[in-house]
Design goal:
about 230 residues, alpha/beta, Rossmann fold, 5-stranded parallel sheet, globular, disordered C terminus
Length: about 230
């Protein structure tokens, strides 16, 4: 026994719950941006509930070479790198290692951008409140990278919305990114986003595209009216 209760059936149901939490924003001039891959189903359901345009912000964590499930930072499509400097020092990663890993991850981030957007322009964020959504916050550094990318796209205000978060990540993101909306926080010393879901499969590129195509067909947002 032990560990956190499984709060959500799956990512879509978690997005429905976030939309309920944020129902005061329904119909207002907001946009919802999911972090691929896992954040997209959450963002899709949340955007649908708020009647808001859906888009993506394609950032990716920098994996620790000897522990690929863990990350020491993240990289944005623009090539900006957000590092957990304390962790980089603790695991003795050399600057050349960081540069090499960052370049490899940036190549994958840009591949995903091409794969998911397929030539469509991003949603115009100017003058909008933008919610950046993921399926959970473990360390928080991927979300910090996403927020920096969104701010660079001209959003008036950026807020974070996640179904679950470690207390440490919640505090980090709150300090640096402003408003964070979260359904459940955990003080457990070992935090795993998957432990809050009954179903938490790894997603593939075609599944991400399927969510974006569904949103386009449903008319969720200006991006998806571009053909």
């Amino acid at each position: 026994m032990g560990g956190p209760p499984r709060m959500f059936r799956d990512r879509e149901q978690a997005g429905v719950e976030l939309a309920k939490l944020l129902r005061s924003f329904e119909g207002r001039d907001v946009a919802v941006l999911g972090i691929p891959r896992g954040g997209v189903p959450v963002a899709y359901a949340m955007a649908r509930g708020l009647r808001a345009p859906l888009d993506i912000v394609t950032v990716r964590k920098l994996q620790i070479p000897f522990d690929p499930e863990a990350g020491f930072g993240a990289v944005t499509p623009e090539g900006n790198v957000v590092l957990n400097d304390e962790l980089v020092k603790r695991i003795h990663l050399e600057p050349d290692d960081v540069r090499k890993i960052s370049a490899e991850v940036l190549e994958e981030v840009r591949r995903r951008e091409r794969e998911y957007r397929r030539g469509r322009e991003p949603v115009d964020l100017k003058g909008r409140t933008v919610f950046v959504v993921d399926d959970g916050l473990a360390s928080g550094y991927t979300m910090l990278a996403a927020v920096s990318s969104v701010l660079g796209r001209g959003a008036t205000k950026v807020a974070v919305a996640v179904p679950c978060a470690s207390s440490r990540a919640f505090s980090l993101v709150s300090r640096q990114a402003g408003d964070v909306y979260c359904i459940v926080r955990s003080d457990e010393p070992v935090f795993a986003v998957a432990s809050f879901y009954e179903s938490f499969p790894d997603l593939k590129d075609d599944e991400v595209r399927a969510y974006l195509d569904r949103a386009r067909k449903e008319g969720t947002g200006p991006w998806y009216h571009n053909g």
